[in-house]
Amino acid sequence: IGNTVLHILVLQPNKTFACHMYSLILSYDRTKEGSGSLELIPNNEGLSPFKLAGVEGNTVMFQYLMQKRKQNLWSFGPVSTVLYDITEIDSWAEDQSFLELIVSTKKREARQILDLTPVKELVSLKWNMYGRPYFCFLALFYILYMVCFTMCCVYRPLKPRTGNRTSSRDNTVYIQKMLQESYVAYEDELRLVGELITVIGAIVILVLEIPDILRVGAAKYFGQTILGGPFHIIVITYACMILVTMVMRLTSTTGEVVPMSFALVLGWCNVMYFARGFQMLGPFTIMIQKMIFGDLMRFCWLMAVVILGFASAFYIIFQTENPENLGQFYNYPMSLFTTFELFLTIIDGPANYDVDLPFMYSVVYFAFAIIATLLMLNLLIAMMGDTHWRVAHEQDELWRAQVVATTVMLERKLPRCLWPRSGICGREFGLGDRWYLRIEDRVDPNKHKMMRYTEAFKAQDRDNCDKGSEKLEANRDASCKKELSALSLSRSTSRTSSHRGWEILRRNT
């Protein structure tokens, strides 16, 4: 029951009341240490009160709980050294990492905890010491891997076509070689080495991605932008295309250019994932993802309807005309593609002034230009501008969340010998087996002086209150009227003294 009440208090909107009640309940806890403590018992979702405060974005409760966990090591003037307990914060030995919970939640308030002590210092330590060097090395290795795959595609086995052309529009001069003809010369053996590297890399990608999908869940793994959801879809699809290309090559099936071209596009687009390691480029990847999966996806439905309607109209208009004089609409698939190019203003309206064009072509093209170019494209630009404005206000916050997600990902995938545990073991200071992060806190001298003034004035107020209470005790047997007047005088004296002290402090500041 006590643990349930603690979880309810974390969700309370009145933060001050929740902190006082939280402390009151823990004062009655007889098992404050060990696994039986109320603070360490998880709820049905596996969240302790501390983790729940982070997921809900309750910064007041989080700071209150961190103040309870810290240990003051030493203090000298404005400089002090504090040990913060990072047992539940550090993702080293946690199946459900606190940092991963924060970046995967949909509440913006939760990401503000990444800027609080000691989370900010812990993430900065992990990223600067291990995360950034490993991530840059991984980016360089992936680019070299993609260069190898691209060279294998450029020099894929082809041979001249020997058969006759079936139509005047047939432009094919090379065809794919059979498996027995593909690996004969020395250049073919070099290409085989590159192809083996490409296939092994695709298998490694699938081996690394599938366990995370099963652990996190497909909806959260692919749907969270901070976790790199769209890029996970891209890299898994790329690996599948590589395996499909390999099967088609081994079975001598024609048409390997289809999965190979898809793999080239997806593989090079995945390079943008590594932009999150740089503060200048990281927020732009978030912006691109939100535009593609937010604005552009909704716009594509409208664009498809417009293109389908006008392409059908253009095909019907030119269905009776000679395709040699105006061949952009000679069949229905070509009409769809030409209308798509017209929609994006890639080409101008097709016209041949040597022949007479149908009258309805001018009417339909006029309506298409007004709706597509002037209306819908400007609507898309306005939608993207709004998304850019919204993301620009959160770019620093989003980049920190990207860094945290990347750090947790690298820490889980790399061997323990390459990523030692951060912090200091509590046994060095007689604090048990918990791990702590050592942080030096430096207070501004003017601020330190102001705090001393404040404490002095608070002490003066307490002395006045004590004197007033002593006077009340001395005059307990007096009449009610005298007692009330003495109480009023005591309060007015305390209020006047406090007011005078704060006026002095305000002028000095």
Count every beta strand, where a strand is a DSSP E run of 2 or more residues: 6
Instruction: Kindly report how far apart the N and C termini lie.
Output: 49 Å
The figure for the number of domains is 3
The parts where pLDDT drops under 50 for at least 5 residues are: 476-495
Mass-distribution shape: extended
Report on the structure:
With 509 residues, the chain is mainly α. The protein folds into 3 domains: 5-115 and 423-446, no CATH class; 125-276, no CATH class; 293-413, Helix Hairpins. It has 18 helices and 6 strands. It has helices at 2-10, 15-27, 49-55, 59-69, 98-104, 108-111, 119-154, 179-182, 186-216, 218-223, 229-250, 257-269, 282-317, 332-343, 359-392, 395-413, 445-474, 480-508; strands spanning 71-76, 79-85, 158-160, 174-176, 424-425, 435-442. Strands 1-2-6-5 form a 4-stranded antiparallel beta sheet, covered by helices on one side. It has a two-stranded antiparallel ribbon with strand order 3-4. Helix 7 packs antiparallel against helix 12 and helix 13 (282-317) crosses helix 16 (395-413). The longest helix has 36 residues, at 119-154.
